[in-house]
Write a structure and sequence with these properties.
Blueprint: E1 5-7, E2 15-18, E3 23-25, E4 28-31, E5 36-39, E6 42-43, E7 47-48, E8 54-60, E9 63-67, H1 69-77, E10 86-89, E11 102-105, H2 107-116
Antiparallel strand pairs: 1-2, 2-3, 3-6, 4-5, 7-8, 8-9, 10-11
Length: 117
Amino acid sequence: MEEIWKDLLGYEEGYQISNLGKLRSKERIVDYGWKKANRPSKILSFREGKYGYLYTIISINKIRKTVKPHRLVALNFIPNPLNLPEVNHIDGNKLNNAFWNLEWSSSKDNIRHAYNT
């Protein structure tokens, strides 16, 4: 399957997300105040959080934000015409953040699916 990269919505100048759940920073110049530095592009690593979901921290203009790859993939690759609030892992594996394993879900359906899997 071909990996497709898109600029991360809201962070277009600094990050890209792939349809397979990878996150990378874009090459850019960072102003630290006392100096400017060229930051090369790199794939970011994730940590596993308390409830089993992966997360990492991104930063633009000194503002840090914790992000989860399953939400980023869903927001950037999966249409949500019913405006459902949650992202469900179809196979129940919270570490599998490929677009084909994710779907938008209501809270009730997400809980039901977690119980059944």
